[in-house]
Design a protein that fits this description.
By secondary structure, the chain is an alpha/beta fold. Helices cover 32% and strands 13% of the residues. The longest helix has 19 residues.
């Protein structure tokens, strides 16, 4: 769903209905500081921070970012530090606290299961983010968009409150050359730390070969898989083999890209199917082939409890009702190089002309790539940053073509868009699965919106 759409409110509603509610763990540090700068309507951020178990952290964050009554509409958000491989103490505290807050609120007032989802491609915030979610008692961790082989062992060590390390993917690194980022709970927060429970780990995969490798060779216990098809929203796994495009410019997925469910089933671990399963018949079929259930994203993204801007929800629901809601699987939009599904809508960055009128800027940096300089040091660049900057850092101009600022666009989707220099307001970049054209079916007669409970009720019909 992107940043902040599967928020604490949505995850809480799903969990209270007896299912696994999952919050997005992507960019939670910037989400928290911008909610605080908007005045923290309802006081939810401050209530969760008041329950943060390590003294002093919450007050330091509030002193720095909270604006009573909220900032002026014409003022930009105050920036937080951009991540690097050696984050400051402040940024570590912010990452831990932000993920704690989201999970705490999702779990508040009930005992249902709550998970958190991360992208393997976004490596720098992973370690403190995991720790923050675990401090709040997260039930399970889900991770895809890469090969999360190291994460199970990291969860084991964090549960024992031990230091952890994550190897970084670095362009230009030589054979046997390793760059890492690390996190030590005791070094960051002192010796008196709360006890932790190791959450389950579910790897998001698209192929049986990857599932099998993780089951055998991951650094710790893998507890199951989410098997995601090419119709699911957000980032998709690239097609296997040489990339081919349709006449419209979308990647071509074929038989080789259909997951071998029998092979996955033979691994003996539970698995869930994802990608256009928001129909009772599809749920039944998933159970028939041996799945433990299904993962639903797009249908929940447009329900009342999701974090998406309400005006955008109404527009997309109206498009779905008239058959106008279409998704384009863009092979170049994301700086990650993964295909990225983009809802086609006027006055959003799905329109190439609208996006070309945007001044390029990379002020968040979650999807930057690490690279090794000629002197052997580690630096960062993003194919969506200003082209001249990217080339100055040794990047190829060809890699910048068609790239979009996913970070800023996704934050605008949830009402947290930045006002850039010159007063330019960031525009949305909405990601949805192919099933977005069918979300109007969740509307009851005469209704203009639907709830998470409406989705669950429909999908569990016999």
């Amino acid at each position: 769903m992107g940043v902040g759409v599967s928020n604490w409110s949505l995850a809480r509603a799903v969990s209270k209905a007896g299912q696994l509610g999952v919050v997005s763990g992507t960019a939670m540090d910037v989400v928290l500081v911008r909610r605080l700068q908007l005045g923290d309507l309802g006081g939810h951020m401050r209530r969760a921070l008041a329950n943060f178990p390590i003294p002093g952290v919450a007050q330091r964050i509030l002193d720095r970012y909270f604006i009573p009554g909220g900032k002026s509409d014409d003022k930009p958000f105050r920036a937080k530090p951009v991540l690097n491989e050696k984050p400051s103490r402040h940024l570590l505290e912010l990452l831990v606290a932000a993920n704690f807050v989201e999970v705490f609120l999702a779990k508040e007032g009930h005992d249902g299961p709550v998970g958190i989802n991360f992208l393997e491609k976004i490596q720098l915030p992973t370690l403190p983010s995991l720790y923050g979610a675990m401090l709040a008692g997260v039930t399970c961790v889900l991770m895809g968009a890469g090969i999360p082989k190291a994460i199970p062992g990291i969860l084991d060590r964090l549960a024992r409150r031990q230091p952890v390390e994550l190897r970084l993917d670095v362009q230009g690194a030589g054979p046997g050359e390793t760059f890492t980022t690390s996190f030590d709970p005791h070094e960051c927060f002192g010796e008196e730390l709360p006890p932790l429970v190791r959450p389950d780990f579910l790897a998001i995969v698209s192929f049986a070969t990857l599932a099998g490798m993780l089951a055998r060779k991951a650094s710790g216990r893998v507890d199951g898989f989410v098997v995601e098809g090419s119709t699911a929203g957000g980032h998709n796994a690239p097609p296997r083999g040489k990339m081919q495009l349709t006449l419209a410019g979308e990647p071509v997925y074929g038989e080789r890209d259909t997951p071998d469910l029998e092979a996955i089933k033979a691994l003996g671990l539970p698995f869930w199917l994802a990608g256009s399963y928001a129909e009772p018949a599809h749920v039944s079929e998933a159970l028939r082939v041996g799945a433990a259930g299904v993962q639903i994203g797009t249908a929940f993204a447009y329900c009342e409890e999701s974090g998406m801007d309400h005006a955008l929800k109404r527009r997309v629901l109206a498009m779905s009702q008239t058959g106008a809601a279409k998704v384009f699987t863009d092979p170049t939009a994301s700086p990650t190089g993964f295909p990225f599904k983009v809802l086609q809508m006027e006055d959003t960055h799905s329109d190439p002309t609208t996006y070309e009128n945007r001044a390029r800027v990379c002020d968040l940096g979650y999807l930057r790539h690490a690279y090794k300089t000629s002197s052997g040091t580690l630096r960062w660049r993003c194919p969506s940053e200003p082209v001249a900057d990217y080339m100055r850092k040794g990047g190829d101009e060809e890699e910048t073509r068609g790239r979009k600022c996913v970070c800023n666009g996704l934050l605008r989707n949830v009402g947290l868009g930045q006002i850039q220099h010159g007063g330019e307001q960031e525009k949305p970049l909405i990601t949805s699965g192919d099933d977005v054209g069918n979300i109007a079916k969740f509307l009851k007669p005469g209704a203009r919106s639907y709830t998470a409970a409406d989705v669950i009720e429909r999908l569990l019909r016999k």
